[in-house]
Design brief:
The complex is a heterodimer of chains A (505) and B (148). With 505 residues, chain A is mainly alpha-helical. Helix content of chain A is 75%, strand content 1%. In chain A, strand 1 and strand 2 form a beta hairpin. The longest helix of chain A is centred in the N-terminal third of the chain and has 49 residues. Chain A is globular, with a radius of gyration of 22 Å. In chain A, 61% of the residues are buried. Chain B contains five helices and no strands. In chain B, helix 1 runs antiparallel to helix 2 and helix 4 runs antiparallel to helix 5. The model of chain B has no long low-confidence stretch (mean pLDDT 86). At the A-B interface, helix 7, helix 8, helix 18, helix 19 and helix 20 of A face helix 1, helix 2, helix 3, helix 4 and helix 5 of B.
């Protein structure tokens, strides 16, 4: 009952005209970002953060817009999967498997429509899951002390590489690099200057927004230049849509299964949207059995992974909102937005910023309907923009990133910093050191240190407090499993996903 | 397959970890005496983690990803120089001109024809300028185009 009350409060926020407008804008931009190969959701949201700042938006409006972008990006990823056979973002990879063959058979419009409906169902199911699960988890998280939080942060880093992660040591190293950068600046509780080298600009520490935009946007530009992918690829023409109700109804069970599995994969640490869509696709193939013609343009093969990855992306919001611990790159960037709006993420947010949290959740529901409407009749617009070759697009995106960063502080120093992060990001990606843990380190560093300090103050310097309660031991165990699992199960899963990917070609 | 990259990077990170640790030992004792966890504790912990990871990378490196060859490497260099020049010239030249130059050069180097490339730069720069200055009332520098 309480949840319903809060939800209606949330709808009150989400349905304000201003918020509705920004949600619609976010949905549109998000779909675009998702559709464009080379502009992933994390990257796109990162570029938009400084713009949301300079617009002087209210916290809830800013967050509603960015969440809409996030949701939209998951919709958009499928467009380039189907038409270009290149996933617009990583989770959309599985959609290529049947989406592209379907488009080749002259059923591109049907594939787009089915995948839009599947995305809608996946999101809807997962958002309902979020509404039911988030308050429970938030209440549970209120019992966490500083020691549990410290363990939770460790868990977040340990599982971030994901079960499919290649080298857990590199994930750990990336996290350490991020945390180290976060310690630069004046120490908040003692006033000690740390690693500032008497450079005035470093006193306040490294602004993580600059770091995020640099790591994503600039390094992406460099990668495109290296791969000489500027010209883009041949696209399949979209035919007029002929879809019968019967066909839509026939994919319903698929989308429900996909949404539920996706949601679970999104909530669990270390799984994420890519694995979610992979599991839903393989499972669907098993369930349908011999009747299916998967890999040759089966509509269910389009619907399953799309429902899965949209479900997972809403599911990934659960740990981010309730615990303040994101499980994916994009949710980490959303968290960055919260932190820079001076909102402490975590369980208290559900009581202290109820309007904001529930406003965002309600906006997810509203946005999902908007996205369905945007994505069926207006799909042609996105297809048009998709045909702009990257050689024009990426420089413009980089320019928008520049403007955003510049307009926060009007300082060119920040721009140099951003470029440096971009070059650093390029090198790290070359070495297959993941970037997301770096960002998470930057974001969570101060909180992690604060909790460590509180715990040690309580115990008077006894380190064993960090693993003294049952709960914290549990968290440590999951963290250790999270680090070991990729070594044991990872190779098998990776090989299977690789096999699927090589079919995409 | 050479395994050079990881070894070199591991070595660099190891040096940084040691320097970072040394830096932490040099912090002045905070006002009011030291505590169980001072400003240096967390950095020391991180330095140890970084050092362990670096050693692992040196001992068990992954196979290298190929680095770009000379020509591509040059293109990457040009891109970085363009970006730095963009930041440098943003205020003196003004937003529109510097954007035309930066975006134009990037488009051109990525394969667009020069005229089309610089035109893209000019148009996108002008649109963003108008949007920011008049739409959002966040003036961007006008630079050379400023009429006294």
């Amino acid at each position: 009952m309480e949840t319903l009350h809060y939800l209606s409060l949330g709808f009150g926020v989400a349905l304000q005209p201003e918020n509705l407008m920004f949600a619609l804008m976010g949905c549109f931009i998000g779909t675009l970002i998702g559709a464009l190969p080379g502009l992933g959701p994390a990257n796109g949201v990162a570029i938009l953060i400084p713009l949301a700042f300079t617009l002087g938006l209210k916290p809830e409006t800013a967050l509603i817009m960015l969440t809409a972008v996030y949701a939209g990006a998951m919709y958009g990823g499928r467009i380039s999967s189907i038409l270009l056979n290149i996933p617009g973002d990583e989770p959309a990879m599985m959609t290529c498997l049947d989406g592209y063959p379907m488009a080749r058979k002259g059923k591109a419009a049907e594939a787009l429509a089915i995948s839009a409906i599947a995305s809608f169902m996946g999101s809807l199911i997962a958002t309902i899951g979020l509404i039911l699960l988030a308050p429970l988890l938030a209440r549970f998280a209120l019992t966490f002390g500083p020691a549990e939080y410290f363990a939770l942060f460790v868990l977040a880093f340990a599982t971030l590489g994901g079960i499919t992660g290649k080298n857990p040591m590199k994930t750990l190293m990336a996290a350490a690099i991020g945390l180290i950068i976060a310690t630069v600046g004046i120490d908040l509780s003692t006033g000690t200057q740390r690693y500032t080298f008497n450079v005035l600009e470093l006193y306040e520490g490294v602004d993580f927004i600059i770091a995020i935009v640099g790591l994503f946007a600039v390094s992406e530009l460099l990668f495109f230049i290296e791969e000489k992918a500027g010209a883009g690829r041949e696209m399949i023409k979209v035919n007029p849509l002929k879809l019968k109700w019967r066909e839509i109804l026939s994919i319903f069970p698929t989308t429900i299964r996909g949404g539920v599995i996706g949601f679970i994969a999104g909530v669990l640490p270390g799984a994420g949207a890519s694995l979610g869509s992979f599991i839903t696709y393989t499972l669907e193939k098993k369930i349908v059995g011999k009747d299916g013609y998967f890999g040759e343009g089966d509509p269910r093969g389009v619907a399953a992974p799309e429902a899965g990855n949209n479900g997972a992306s809403s599911g990934a919001l659960v740990p981010m909102l309730t615990l303040g611990v994101p499980g994916s790159g994009t949710t980490a960037v959303l968290l960055a937005m919260l932190v820079s709006l001076n909102i402490t993420p975590g369980p208290l947010m559900f009581t202290q910023n109820a309007e904001l949290v529930w406003g965002v959740i309600a906006a997810l529901l509203v946005g999902n309907f908007m996205l369905l409407l945007l994505n069926i009749p207006l799909v042609g617009v996105f297809v048009k923009i998709l045909s702009v070759p990257p050689m024009y697009l990426l420089p413009i995106v980089t320019m928008v990133a520049f403007v955003g960063i510049y307009s926060i502080s009007h300082s060119t120093f920040d721009l140099y910093f951003m470029i440096a992060f971009g070059v650093g990001g390029y090198i790290l990606r070359k070495l297959e050191i993941p970037l997301v843990p770096v960002i998470l380190g930057l974001l969570l560093g101060p909180e992690m240190e604060k909790n460590l300090r509180h715990a040690m103050q309580i115990s008077d310097g006894d380190w064993s407090i960090l693993w003294s309660s049952g709960l914290s031991i549990g968290l440590w165990l999951v963290a250790i499993i999270g680090l070991l699992l990729p070594v044991i199960v990872g190779p098998i899963l990776r090989r299977r996903m690789q096999a699927a990917k090589s079919k995409v070609g | 397959m050479s395994k050079f990259n990881d070894r070199v990077f591991g070595l660099v990170m190891l040096v940084i970890a040691v320097a970072y640790y040394y830096g932490a030992t040099q912090f002045p004792v905070p006002f009011g005496g030291s505590e169980a966890v001072g400003p240096e504790t967390f950095p020391k912990l991180l330095a140890v983690i970084l050092a362990v990871c670096s050693l692992y990378m040196i001992v068990k490196p992954d196979a290298d990803n190929p680095w770009p060859v000379a020509q591509t490497f040059l293109e990457l260099g040009i891109a970085v120089v363009v970006l730095v020049a963009y930041a440098l010239l943003l205020e003196p030249l003004g937003f529109i001109i510097s954007t035309m130059l930066a975006v134009g050069t990037l488009c051109w180097r990525m394969g667009a024809r020069p005229v089309k490339a610089y035109l893209t730069g000019l148009i996108s720069g002008a649109i963003v300028f108008v949007l920011f200055t008049y739409g959002l009332e966040l003036p961007l520098p006008l630079g050379l185009l400023e009429i006294n």
